[in-house]
Amino acid sequence: MRHTLLQGVLVLAAALALPAYAGWSVQQHGTRDKLTWHDTDGQALDLASPQGQGIEIVDIAPAGRDNLRQGDVITAVDGHTVAHVADLLVYTNAHLQASTVLTVHRGHADLKIDLAPGELATLLHPHP
């Protein structure tokens, strides 16, 4: 009897939570040198670091999100060199709510891009 009651409570809780997540889904894949995610609203991020010399933004949607563009190469975060996607994730996980300065190589120039507190974590770890 207790087991059935507990199952009923869990089903009810799940049913009540569904509207909060309606229309939201993220498909995410990550390795040492790759991070890819996209959601049902058309937002996406695809990062790769196959050469270990920075993190290329293969795709980002919407274009220009956080002042980042397809083809940009992230070379440092807050002055710390990042060679692999995993380096960026480790740094971000240690500074989840911090403001961040990305050093990005775009075309023939190196740029500094300021991100608001928590913005890098939101970009790398999408959630509803």
From TrEMBL:
<protein>
    <recommendedName>
        <fullName>PDZ domain-containing protein</fullName>
    </recommendedName>
</protein>
<feature type="signal peptide">
    <location>
        <begin position="1"/>
        <end position="22"/>
    </location>
</feature>
<feature type="domain" description="PDZ">
    <location>
        <begin position="56"/>
        <end position="115"/>
    </location>
</feature>
<keyword id="KW-0732">Signal</keyword>
<dbReference type="InterPro" id="IPR001478">
    <property type="entry name" value="PDZ"/>
</dbReference>
<dbReference type="InterPro" id="IPR036034">
    <property type="entry name" value="PDZ_sf"/>
</dbReference>
<dbReference type="Pfam" id="PF13180">
    <property type="entry name" value="PDZ_2"/>
</dbReference>
